[in-house]
Amino acid sequence: MTESAEDRASWDTEELPEGEEKVAAVQSMFDAIAPKYDRLNRIISFRLDVRWRRRAVRDLALPAGSVVLDLASGTGDLCLDLARGGVQPISVDLSFGMLSADRSGEPRVQADILRLPVPDRSVDGVTCGFALRNLIDLPTFFDELRRVVRPGGRIALLDVSVPSNAVVRWGNNIYFGKVVPRIGAALSDGAAYRYLPKSVAYLPDASEMLDALRDAGFEDATHAQLSGGLTQLMVGTRT
What we know:
The chain is an alpha/beta fold. It has helices spanning about 5-10, 20-35, 35-45, 50-60, 75-85, 95-100, 140-150, 165-185, 190-200, 205-215, and strands at about 65-70, 90-95, 110, 125-130, 150-160, 220-225, 230-235. A seven-stranded mixed sheet has the order 3-2-1-4-5-7-6, sandwiched between helices. Helix 5 (about 75-85) links the parallel strand 1 and strand 2 (about 90-95). Helix 1 (about 5-10) packs across helix 2 (about 20-35) and helix 8 packs antiparallel against helix 9. It is globular, with a radius of gyration of 17 Å. The termini are far apart.
């Protein structure tokens, strides 16, 4: 399905969308870029995305056979890594286009990850890769993680970051602000790859997110910057 001009305009704007407009924009955008999403990820990240996902699975540190929800699962990359790590992933995404392109072969469901269709304390863990900035309410999301993860269960949340080193930050701003949109326009959807680098502005700073996670019941939550601060990883245990 091709997105309408109205849908495209909802994410191809100078000002980032908010509220329900953001939800609709994100869903339409990921439906549109799903067929080439994996290829672009590998090219844009120089395959560092593979390393980041494997680190998230390692730090999740759950025993074999654990049931793990992979939220905003996209085309199933993280589900593949989870399965290789011996756990049982379930793929959850708002975008039907992404779920249609899922190649993991794992169970999948279309759902809003702020309102998960699973019982309380029913899973052993949760992963989420590069989607926190696409949510409209992070505290609500963290509360939902507390609801669905059993006590003693674990979470691992990946997203982009702003490097603390000034030189790395300068280079990152040029690459993601100027080069990535051109690659996206050439190989996929230029509007989407203009939006994605800007969307890091949605994220609160690390200390604020850690405080919210701890308030939500993940009292040992920690934060790490990966690859010089290009990416961040938060992990924690359900109290």
